[in-house]
Amino acid sequence: MILTVTANAAIDKRYVVTSFDVGSVNRVKSAEFSAGGKGLNVSRTARIAGEDVIATGFLGGHAGEFVQEKLKAEGIREDFVWCSGETRSCINIWDESHHTQTEFLEPGARATQQNQDSLVKKFTELAADCSVAAISGSMPEGCTSDLYKRMLAAGKKAGKKVILDTSGKTLEECLDDHPFMIKPNIDEIQMLVGRKLNPDDTKELLDAAKELHARGIPSVVISLGSSGSLMSCGEGAFQALVPRIDAVNTVGCGDAMIGGFCTGIARGLSMPESLKLASAVSAAAAMTNRTGFFRMEDMKKLEPLIEIRKLR
Ligand SMILES: Nc1ncnc2c1ncn2[C@@H]1O[C@H](COP(=O)(O)OP(=O)(O)OP(=O)(O)O)[C@@H](O)[C@H]1O
Ligand SMILES: [Mg+2]
């Protein structure tokens, strides 16, 4: 079983408009609503890969019930902490004429200290039956990185592998709590090591990953979009090369990659094998319009084409 944490879940609303004009009435051609939030993308991709998943985090109001129903329909178990506010909406507007994407991300309803204590307790209980957990994305108002730090500590105490995929100050502040894996993209790794890195310079990137290792993080994966990824872990340093594909939506590919890693770890695969699976899942996710989703047939076709090279 895989446990996922989505502290800032959302209803993702995708609007398609003929033309998006600021300051005027815009008629929406089609609207699509789905359960969103990075941890839910992880849940969905691991579920599609065939794993049993239980999702936790915060939900609230009717929007929270909508998310709950969507998860049920997708075969994802859930056990959330219910807050008094309404789960947020994130709106993504696709302008067909200009091929532009405009996003509105609500901050999310406040989680009280009591809500946060309940989530740490729930995480601890649920993690007992899981082989791997992933904490993803941002937190709603009222939370500090202390929430993630407490879950990381609980996971560690129970001997569980906890992956942390967040950004900014939260990611930085949680490094000393030693998540089992982090998966920074190029912006995130630059922020963590405090210097500019050349995305084409493998040595420079691996040195940065090593610095994070030295701080006690067993697996550091740097994701590089269409250029694949680099992984430094106990089994060595590896590069994953992905084939050239027809990418239609790369938002959430990192989440799909975490879903793939969770799947590999839950199956007891080695880290390089898990990297191969995670690369196939994330590249397949880039081939569909739906965020945090992939087709099994795309993944199966891509998997043999992913090249894993041992570097050090
Ligand atoms: N255009 C692409 N072609 C093939 N594979 C891709 C492409 N974009 C992303 N991927 C796959 O997805 C992985 C993660 O992508 P990326 O580095 O963009 O993550 P990210 O920035 O964390 O994304 P997000 O936070 O939106 O989920 C890559 O390492 C690669 O395996
Ligand atoms: Mg990411």
Description:
The protein has one domain (2-21, 28-310): Ribokinase (UDP-N-acetylmuramoyl-L-alanine:D-glutamate ligase), CATH 3.40.1190.20. Helices cover 37% and strands 25% of the residues. The chain has ten helices and 15 strands. Strands 1, 4, 5, 6, 9, 10, 11, 12, 13, 14 and 15 form an eleven-stranded mixed β-sheet that branches. Strand 9 (132-136), helix 4 and strand 10 form a beta-alpha-beta unit. Helix 9 (271-285) packs across helix 10. The longest helix has 15 residues, at 113-127. The protein starts with a strand and ends with a strand. Bound molecules: adenosine-5'-triphosphate and magnesium ion. Adenosine-5'-triphosphate binds at residues 185, 223-226, 228-229, 242, 245, 247, 250-255, 257, 279, 282-283, 286. Magnesium ion (MG) binds next to loops.
Q: What can be said about this structure in brief?
A:
By secondary structure, the protein is of the alpha/beta class. The chain has helices at 38-48, 61-73, 113-127, 146-157, 168-174, 186-193, 202-214, 253-266, 271-285, 296-302; strands spanning 2-6, 10-17, 30-36, 53-60, 77-78, 81-83, 88-95, 100-105, 132-136, 161-165, 181-182, 219-223, 229-233, 236-241, 307-310.
Topology:
Elements: E1 2-6, E2 10-17, E3 30-36, H1 38-48, E4 53-60, H2 61-73, E5 77-78, E6 81-83, E7 88-95, E8 100-105, H3 113-127, E9 132-136, H4 146-157, E10 161-165, H5 168-174, E11 181-182, H6 186-193, H7 202-214, E12 219-223, E13 229-233, E14 236-241, H8 253-266, H9 271-285, H10 296-302, E15 307-310
Parallel strand pairs: 1-4, 1-9, 2-7, 4-5, 4-6, 9-10, 10-11, 11-12
Antiparallel strand pairs: 2-3, 7-8, 12-13, 13-14, 14-15
The protein binds adenosine-5'-triphosphate and magnesium ion (MG).
